[in-house]
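Can anyone check this?
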Amino acid sequence: MSCGIFVPVSPVERAALLASVLLVLMVELLNSSVEAAIDQISLERHELSKRAKDFGSAAVMVALLVCVLTWGLIVARCCDAGP
């Protein structure tokens, strides 16, 4: 995330870079809370518990893809602009 400090972008783009990283952290925290709640209920294997955990992991993956796409597009635009 500190890399965003050195990339020459506008304040709006800097906010988008920061927001995309924070989105990943928020979704990961929610995923962890779902997993903890499911484990608290029962440690037995259950198909619905597995699906809930898989959906949480998929949400984290989507957030990571959004983050990578945001950073990629903004940094690529900055590199194309040149000095």
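Reply from J.R.: I decoded it. The two ends are 22 Å apart (CA to CA).
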